[in-house]
Amino acid sequence: MDNTQKIILNNNSNDRTEVNRWLMELSNHCGRIKPLSDILWEDCNVIDMLMSPLTELLLNLVRQERNKKKIKHGMVNSRSFISKVKLKYDMLKNNHRSKKITSAPEKASVIFWPCEPTHLQSQIPVAKELLKRNISCAFLTNRPSLVPKIVKLDCKAIYAGFLWEKEIRRAKKKARTQTERFADLGFGFPDFMIPYDPEKLSQLISGHIRMMLPFMVETAAIFREAVNTITPSLMIIGNDLTYEGRIVSTLSKTKKLPTVSIMHGVVDGNPLHYHHIVDLFLVHGQKAKKIIERSSKNNTKISICGAPHLDHITRNRQINPKIKDAVNINHNDRYCLVATSGPGNSISYNHHLEVIQSIFTASKRFHNVHFVIKLHRKDQVEFYENMRSRKNITIIEHSHNRL
């Protein structure tokens, strides 16, 4: 590991803190950005809504400058992304008459608003428990990829793209018109943590805002339609740190609608936890509660609820037959699931490679244990090439649907 790599590895946590601090200053500097705030809501602070994606964008910029070479930003090709979404939408439309996908809005006391597939793991067990108590629930999303996952687990899905297609199209059209008049954030930025041309920095952030604004406006339009037609008493949001979750949380406050978010993943002291804005954030245990209470600067209440997604796991030590068949594990073999998230916001490239090497070493030492490596979508199968020769290692790519 050369000196540059050591700096990046050692400064990873500090970089996140500094980037987050700088974005907070920028948020105060910009305040309401006209004409952007006019098409969302009156007191909109676009920088605050985009705190999470902008943090990742700037962290990649810092690492790129320190490395003096380009690093993958984890951004998908927009044309490819839109094509995949359209394909999923068309497939969904062909099957939308299924009883599992509502063709008309229904009244519900609780709306679950997942932003990513991982949010469903915690939300669905909660929804099932609420339904047992005769509390009506609805899963609302405008992401085609989430609908089959909800339907598969016997929960009704409300797909906004079917119910409010005209309203969404109208809102996006207005957003495109407004972004054409939005050039940049101007100057007078707070000093950035690395030497960088202020004009280029302004263009970078402004470009990201222009790219994200149609999605933000779409979320705001869906929220308004959902509240007016479904009339919920509670909103359970997948993650209030994402742009989608922050918009739903902020708009809910204007309607005096209580909001809840359930912890998923790991709470590791990431400075983004300063920015939880839901009324109640539910965590798995005491350690996570202390970390968030120590870092949170908002009025979010933190409560311990355990991990809903683990409630269904039995104490039976037998391997799930589906897993055994999918990865060819012998009946008597022990197995270890490896599910790291890959390099990115919290983990540096070099740190991730060291983790992979540790797994490889462990597989040699514990030859009677079958290691099943399920790749995260931002991980790369090329990192694991030297493992393919091991008989007790199975690598499953993110796109693989066997599991």
Please provide a written account of the structure.
- Helices cover 46% and strands 11% of the residues.
- The protein is built from 14 helices and 10 strands.
- It has helices at 3-10, 12-30, 46-49, 51-67, 78-94, 117-132, 147-152, 160-163, 165-179, 198-230, 243-254, 286-295, 321-327, 349-365; strands spanning 110-113, 137-141, 157-159, 234-237, 259-262, 280-283, 301-304, 334-338, 369-374, 393-396.
- The strands form 2 sheets. It has a 7-stranded parallel beta sheet, with helices on both faces. A 3-stranded parallel beta sheet has the order 8-9-10, with no helix packed on it.
- Strand 1 (110-113), helix 6 and strand 2 form a beta-alpha-beta unit.
- The longest helix has 33 residues, at 198-230.
- The chain is globular, with a radius of gyration of 22 Å.
- It starts with a helix and ends in a 7-residue tail after the last strand.
- Residues 1-11 and 71-84 have low confidence and may be disordered.
